[in-house]
């Protein structure tokens, strides 16, 4: 007998060791349940982090635009064709955010704002010999914009630091046109601007649409090409806490009267998918927990019957009701704890196996699974609590056992 | 020592009914009066179903009488709560049953330690020494470390006696302790009880069916249908 161990622990461990098969089977059951929870949780959180990252890699968390005007035909559709035809001509012109420097300074001072970047976006053509390629131009200040979007990490040749007559093009566009860094391209816009720019860098977003249509140029170059001297089409913002974006967006809207979109509002569908995933994860956890609890409870109910003589003898030789109660609660807790630690370990092995199976053709991971070590702790604490709850009924039964009847058998 | 401590056990008008209020309800103990003094060695005999086990359970505070008062070393017990009864039982009463006395998950020595462990919460060296001393006293030093299931019936009863004595109780209750032993083993176990009694102040109340063994007690109480039919002092014939 270990001197450091209290009476109930000594008894609980001996009882569990004695009923070796029962103990091993129920612990295996708990372990299996926990391993499924650990695996699915890591999978879902990996998936979510990945989707989340993919979204925010390409998109600012908040975008400040000129206020909604009648010049937005889409919004006016229900007001009738008459109005739409009336306002149609204005849609052709890019609109600048009014007093954008003031807005920028004001937003930069707000709590939780990490980056504010001015952006000029518009349409253009790349002219090369006979070919005429339509592209989306984005005019940026690298010092702010590169903190906003993960463009830097997507650069596969050259640099993202553009000024003056520099430009960045996507991998697909470069291949299409047969150009690479250092080459020059002619740009034109609908408003008549033209410029010859040299390629400073090539990016690969892993998305052929963006790789063949996006072109980044310096902010000032974009302003002159798009006939928007001194103006910007949007002011884009990132926060320290991306999930507060909607609240912050509403505050900015109230303060400036401009149109403010948060990534949460523009990705509502994405968020409802995340919610559905979390829901199903919760449901899985609940049923696994319930199954484990029923398993532990049924093993202990049988154990109380099997041990009733022993319980009677213990009571006759000075063991209290409370000690008997604790003895059985402890068996539930230990079953949950040990089962969950085994299960977390097995779940972790599943994850390692998954990493080696779920890979892209090029050998990179389908998506990186994040294994949070706290999951071990949560699983252990959760399963221990489930074990104690499951043991409650059998333990009360054991404590209430009439020793005279138990000994008589 | 206070005078009342000379009296180990006192029963006043003890009644016991099972299934009170139900059609099957029956009174099996009909107003028993009984006193056992310090160091007495008493046999309890009587036909099967006469209430011997019921009486032992009542005295051992495992069961509650329907009426009457029961005093252990002078302390009234019928008003006590479960917690106090457990403490009093642990301190004052040692039990030896007919069979399945020991916990099979533990060694002989550990079984002897269990009452001390329950009382003090954690094992310590003093407990181990005390248990080893008792194991030696019952002549089982060689098998103390064996699992209790591996011992013979006679050895198991000896371990049970050692366990009953480990808390130095005022009273040891033994319900047919030699009931499933052969004559030789039964004699040995009985001798052991007698020797322990002679060497201490502990009183013994021993249920037995064996008239030969009853004749080796100081006093013989016969129970018939829940009443004391006879209660006689007995002159022990020296073996
Ligand atoms: N738990 C119980 N419920 C109902 N009747 C019982 C119970 N225990 C004992 N009895 C009855 O009490 C009487 C005395 O039994 P018991 O004390 O076991 O006698 P003995 O030990 O002398 O053989 C018997 O008639 C028995 O059927
Ligand atoms: Mg009996």
UniProtKB/TrEMBL annotation, chain A:
<dbReference type="InterPro" id="IPR051447">
    <property type="entry name" value="Lipoprotein-release_system"/>
</dbReference>
<dbReference type="GO" id="GO:0098797">
    <property type="term" value="C:plasma membrane protein complex"/>
</dbReference>
<dbReference type="Pfam" id="PF02687">
    <property type="entry name" value="FtsX"/>
</dbReference>
<feature type="transmembrane region" description="Helical">
    <location>
        <begin position="286"/>
        <end position="306"/>
    </location>
</feature>
<dbReference type="Pfam" id="PF12704">
    <property type="entry name" value="MacB_PCD"/>
</dbReference>
<feature type="transmembrane region" description="Helical">
    <location>
        <begin position="374"/>
        <end position="393"/>
    </location>
</feature>
<feature type="transmembrane region" description="Helical">
    <location>
        <begin position="24"/>
        <end position="44"/>
    </location>
</feature>
<protein>
    <submittedName>
        <fullName>ABC transporter permease</fullName>
    </submittedName>
</protein>
<comment type="similarity">
    <text>Belongs to the ABC-4 integral membrane protein family. LolC/E subfamily.</text>
</comment>
<dbReference type="GO" id="GO:0044874">
    <property type="term" value="P:lipoprotein localization to outer membrane"/>
</dbReference>
<dbReference type="InterPro" id="IPR025857">
    <property type="entry name" value="MacB_PCD"/>
</dbReference>
<keyword id="KW-1003">Cell membrane</keyword>
<keyword id="KW-0472">Membrane</keyword>
<feature type="domain" description="MacB-like periplasmic core">
    <location>
        <begin position="23"/>
        <end position="254"/>
    </location>
</feature>
<feature type="transmembrane region" description="Helical">
    <location>
        <begin position="327"/>
        <end position="354"/>
    </location>
</feature>
<dbReference type="InterPro" id="IPR003838">
    <property type="entry name" value="ABC3_permease_C"/>
</dbReference>
<keyword id="KW-0812">Transmembrane</keyword>
<keyword id="KW-1133">Transmembrane helix</keyword>
<feature type="domain" description="ABC3 transporter permease C-terminal">
    <location>
        <begin position="285"/>
        <end position="403"/>
    </location>
</feature>
From TrEMBL, chain B:
<dbReference type="GO" id="GO:0005524">
    <property type="term" value="F:ATP binding"/>
</dbReference>
<dbReference type="GO" id="GO:0022857">
    <property type="term" value="F:transmembrane transporter activity"/>
</dbReference>
<keyword id="KW-0547">Nucleotide-binding</keyword>
<dbReference type="InterPro" id="IPR017871">
    <property type="entry name" value="ABC_transporter-like_CS"/>
</dbReference>
<dbReference type="Pfam" id="PF00005">
    <property type="entry name" value="ABC_tran"/>
</dbReference>
<dbReference type="InterPro" id="IPR027417">
    <property type="entry name" value="P-loop_NTPase"/>
</dbReference>
<dbReference type="InterPro" id="IPR017911">
    <property type="entry name" value="MacB-like_ATP-bd"/>
</dbReference>
<keyword id="KW-0813">Transport</keyword>
<protein>
    <submittedName>
        <fullName>ABC transporter ATP-binding protein</fullName>
    </submittedName>
</protein>
<comment type="similarity">
    <text>Belongs to the ABC transporter superfamily. Macrolide exporter (TC 3.A.1.122) family.</text>
</comment>
<keyword id="KW-0067">ATP-binding</keyword>
<dbReference type="GO" id="GO:0016887">
    <property type="term" value="F:ATP hydrolysis activity"/>
</dbReference>
<dbReference type="InterPro" id="IPR003439">
    <property type="entry name" value="ABC_transporter-like_ATP-bd"/>
</dbReference>
<feature type="domain" description="ABC transporter">
    <location>
        <begin position="9"/>
        <end position="239"/>
    </location>
</feature>
<dbReference type="GO" id="GO:1902495">
    <property type="term" value="C:transmembrane transporter complex"/>
</dbReference>
<dbReference type="InterPro" id="IPR003593">
    <property type="entry name" value="AAA+_ATPase"/>
</dbReference>
């Amino acid at each position: 007998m270990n001197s450091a161990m209290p009476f109930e622990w000594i008894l609980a461990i001996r009882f569990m060791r004695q009923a070796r098969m029962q103990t091993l089977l129920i612990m295996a059951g708990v372990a299996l349940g926990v391993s499924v929870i650990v695996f699915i949780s890591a999978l879902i959180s990996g998936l979510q982090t990945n989707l989340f990252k993919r979204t925010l890699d390409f998109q600012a968390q908040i975008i400040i635009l000129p206020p909604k005007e009648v010049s937005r035909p889409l919004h006016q559709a229900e007001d009738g064709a008459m109005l739409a035809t009336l306002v149609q001509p204005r849609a052709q012109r890019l609109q600048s955010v009014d007093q954008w420097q003031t807005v920028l300074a004001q937003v930069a001072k707000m709590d939780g704002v990490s980056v504010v970047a001015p952006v000029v976006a518009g349409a253009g053509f790349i002219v090369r010999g006979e070919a005429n390629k339509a592209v989306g131009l984005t005019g940026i200040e690298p010092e702010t914009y590169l903190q906003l979007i993960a463009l830097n990490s997507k650069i596969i040749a050259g640099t993202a630091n553009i000024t003056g007559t520099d430009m960045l093009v996507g991998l697909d566009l470069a291949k299409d046109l047969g150009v690479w860094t250092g080459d020059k391209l002619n740009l034109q816009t609908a408003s008549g601007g033209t410029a010859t720019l040299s390629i400073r860098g090539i990016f690969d977003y892993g998305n052929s649409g963006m790789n063949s249509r996006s072109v980044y140029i310096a902010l000032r170059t974009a302003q002159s090409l798009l006939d928007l001297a001194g103006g910007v089409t949007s002011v884009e913002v990132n926060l320290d806490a991306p999930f507060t974006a909607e609240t912050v967006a509403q505050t900015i809207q109230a303060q400036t009267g401009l149109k403010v979109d948060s990534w949460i509002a523009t990705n509502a569908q994405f968020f409802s998918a995340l919610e559905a995933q979390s829901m199903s994860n919760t449901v899985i956890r609940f049923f696994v927990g319930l199954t484990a609890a029923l398993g532990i409870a049924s093993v202990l109910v049988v154990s109380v019957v099997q041990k009733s003589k022993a319980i009677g003898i213990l009571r006759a030789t000075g063991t209290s009701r409370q000690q008997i109660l604790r003895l059985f609660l402890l068996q539930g807790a230990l079953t949950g704890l040990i089962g969950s630690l085994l299960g977390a370990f097995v779940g972790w092995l599943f994850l390692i196996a998954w990493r080696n199976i779920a890979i892209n053709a090029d050998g990179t991971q389908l998506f990186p699974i994040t294994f949070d070590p706290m999951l071990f702790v949560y699983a252990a604490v959760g399963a221990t609590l489930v074990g104690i709850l499951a043991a409650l009924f059998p333990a009360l039964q054991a404590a209430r056992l009439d020793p005279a009847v138990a000994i008589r058998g | 020592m206070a005078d009342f401590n000379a009296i180990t056990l006192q029963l006043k008008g003890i009644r016991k009914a099972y299934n009170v209020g139900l059609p099957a309800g029956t009174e099996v103990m009909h107003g028993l009066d009984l006193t056992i003094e310090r160091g007495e060695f008493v046999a309890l005999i009587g036909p099967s179903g006469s209430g011997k086990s019921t009486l032992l359970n009542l005295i051992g505070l495992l069961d509650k009488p329907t009426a009457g008062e029961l005093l252990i070393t002078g302390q009234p017990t019928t008003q006590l709560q479960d917690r106090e009864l457990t403490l009093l039982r642990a301190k004052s009463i040692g039990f030896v049953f007919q069979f399945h006395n020991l916990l099979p998950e533990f060694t002989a020595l550990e079984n002897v330690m269990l009452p001390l462990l329950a009382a003090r919460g954690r094992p310590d060296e003093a407990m181990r020494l005390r248990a080893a001393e008792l194991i030696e006293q019952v002549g089982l030093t060689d098998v103390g470390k064996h699992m209790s299931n591996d011992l013979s019936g006679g050895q198991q009863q000896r371990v049970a006696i050692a366990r009953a004595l480990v808390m130095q109780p005022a009273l040891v209750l033994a319900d047919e302790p030699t009931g499933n032993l052969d004559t030789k083993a039964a004699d040995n176990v009985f001798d052991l009880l007698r020797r322990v009694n002679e060497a201490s102040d502990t009183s013994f109340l021993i249920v037995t069916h064996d008239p030969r063994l009853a004749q080796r007690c100081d006093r013989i109480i016969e129970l018939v249908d829940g009443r004391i039919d006879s209660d006689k002092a007995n002159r022990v014939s020296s073996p």
